[in-house]
Amino acid sequence: QLDPENTGFIGVETFASLVHSHELPLDPAKLDMLVALAQGNDEGQVCYQELVDLISSKRSSSFKRAIANGQRALPRDVLLDQTGLGFYKRFVRYVAYEILPCEMDRRWYFYQHRTCPPPVFMAAVTLTQIIVFLCYGARLNKWVLQTYHPEYMKSPLIYHPGHRARAWRFLTYMFMHVGLEQLGFNALLQLMIGVPLEMVHGILRISFLYLAGVLAGSLTVSITDMRAPLVGGSGGVYALCSAHLANVVM
């Protein structure tokens, strides 16, 4: 109706009035993006395909233009000024400000975030590491420097360059730990850094990142010290810290 000649374009003023008067329930983040798209168009027209791409959250040129224009035109203190939020929504807001460097992206993430799927990967890895440690501690009656126990070294999970033909050991060593100090340090960083990263970037990216760090650790030991056994999830933790460092720099 707004494009009777079927050109694929409508005027910015018409589009802006439509955005403010429509009856469809849009979340505030997408409404802001639509307004920013209209304000950022230098030709006085809005393309239908740009509108479709923006609504579907595709990272198109129109999406990036709306992001850039929104940074200039939209207020930046909306999230921090919001009151009456529940504990979980406050945590989501904290994650947005901790992980995302751009104010518009933070608002977008805050309004688009869904509780399903939850960040289960880092929680599952940490819980498994704790269970394995408790099992070996109870079995060996030893809670520190467990690698000095001969039975501990017979575990099928530990990586040793001499056992590199057993390929699963390149990854499974992340479930074994020397003592409470190493386990506690790794578990703390995995939950403090890994969970927020997984909430923003998703389980596939973070699981690949973490496992790549674990694999890098076993491969490094294979070429630097052929006599050393390897236990602990520190390789994955270092990968998470390096990923978070990029957010800190930005």
Automatic annotation (TrEMBL):
Signal peptide range in chain numbering: none
Family classification: Belongs to the peptidase S54 family.
Topological category with respect to the lipid bilayer: Multi-pass membrane protein
Coiled coil regions in record: none
EC number(s) per entry: 3.4.21.105
Alphabetized GO MF terms: serine-type endopeptidase activity
Lineage, opening ranks: Eukaryota, Metazoa, Chordata, Craniata, Vertebrata
GO CC aspect terms: membrane
Protein's UniProt name: rhomboid protease
Domain Peptidase S54 rhomboid: 166-248
InterPro entries for this protein: EF-hand-dom_pair, Peptidase_S54_rhomboid_dom, Peptidase_S54_rhomboid_met, Rhomboid-like_sf, Rhomboid_IM_Serine_Proteases
Matching Gene3D superfamilies: EF-hand (1.10.238.10), Rhomboid-like (1.20.1540.10)
Localization annotation: Membrane
UniProt key word Zinc: no
TM region(s), chain numbering: 120-138, 170-193, 199-221
Enzyme class: hydrolase
Organism, as annotated: Nyctiprogne leucopyga
Swiss-Prot/TrEMBL catalytic activity: Cleaves type-1 transmembrane domains using a catalytic dyad composed of serine and histidine that are contributed by different transmembrane domains
Chief location of this protein within or outside the cell: membrane
PANTHER family tied to this protein: RHOMBOID-RELATED PROTEIN (PTHR45840), RHOMBOID-RELATED PROTEIN 1 (PTHR45840:SF4)
Keywords, alphabetical: Membrane, Transmembrane, Transmembrane helix
